[in-house]
Amino acid sequence: MGQDSLYQLLSILLLLVLAGGMGAIYGLDRSRHRSALFFSLSYLASAGGLLADLFGGAIPPGMLYYLTNAPFAASALLFAGALHGRGGMQWPWRPMALVTLATFAVSSWFLWAEPNLQARVVAMNAGALLLAALGFPALGAAGRINRVMVWLLAATCAQYAIRPALVLALPGSGLQHYIQSPLFVLFHLAMAFITLAFAGALFAAYGLDIAAMSASRSGSEHLPGLADQRGFDQQVQGALASAQGGGPQPVLIVLSLDHFAQIDALSGRQASNAVIRRMAY
C-alpha cells in the first residue's frame, strides 16, 4: 500500500470516528444540539469522497473526479450550514450554491476543455475554502463550543489554502510529485493530528455542555400534565426555527404568582402544584 493510500485509509477512519462522535452528541441531546447531526453527515460525506478515491483505479477518470469531489463539496456545505444552524441563523443558501456551482464549472473546464491538474486542485480548494469561510459569521456568540469551532474552522481553511500552494510549488506534474514527496506525509499527518486534537476538545466542550444541562434539568421537578425543562427547550427551539423560516414570531409570557410561597407553606406541595397546573391551563 502506497503512502497516499495509507493516508486516505487513516483519514477515512478518523472521519468515521468524528462522524460517530457527533452522532452520539446528537443522540444525547437532540433538542439543543441538532446541528451535531449535520456535522456528522459532513464528516461522512468527506469519508465517502476519500473512499471513492481509494478505489478509483477501477473508475473512469472523468467519473472519478465527480465521485470524489462532489462529496467534499457536500461536506463543506453541510459543515457551514451546521454552523449557521447552531448559531440560530438561516443557512446562506444563495452564496453557498453560487460558490459550489462556480467551483465545479471552473474545475470542469480544466478537466474537459483545457486539461490542467494543478488548476483543478486550485479551483476545488479555493471553492472549499470559500464555503468553509462562510461559517465564520455564525461563530460570533460566546461559549466554549464556539471558541473551539473557530479554531477548528481556521485549521480547515488553512488546509485548503496550503495544499494547492504546495502542489504549485513542486516542479513537474505537481500533484503526483506532491503525493510522492515527504511534504505530503508531513503536511497531512500534521493536519490529521491538529484536527484530532480540536475534535477531542470539541467533544469535551459538548460533553461539559450536556452534563451542565443534565444537572440543571435534574434539579427541576416534573409536574404531571406539564412539560418539563426538556419539553420547554424543544418548544422554544421549534418556535424559533418556525420564525426563522417565515412563520409567526413567538412570544414568551412570564407570570409571577403572588403569595405562592405561602400557599406551599400552608397547604403543602400538592396544593401548590395544583395552582401551577391551574395557571398553566
Explain this structure to me?
The chain is mainly α. The chain has 11 helices and no strands. The chain is elongated. The termini are far apart. The relative contact order is 0.08.
Fold topology:
Blueprint: H1 3-28, H2 35-54, H3 61-86, H4 93-113, H5 117-133, H6 144-169, H7 175-179, H8 182-218, H9 229-244, H10 260-267, H11 269-280
Helix pairs in contact: 1-2, 1-8, 2-3, 3-4, 3-5, 4-5, 5-6, 6-8, 10-11
Which blocks of ≥5 consecutive residues have pLDDT under 50? none
Q: State the oligomer.
A: single chain
The count of helical stretches stands at 11
Radius of gyration: 25 Å
- The portion of residues assigned to helices is over 70%
Tell me what portion of residues adopts beta-strand conformation: under 5%
Task: Write a compact overview of the structure shown.
This protein has eleven helices and no strands. By secondary structure, it is mostly helical.
Features:
281 residues; 11 helices; 76% helix
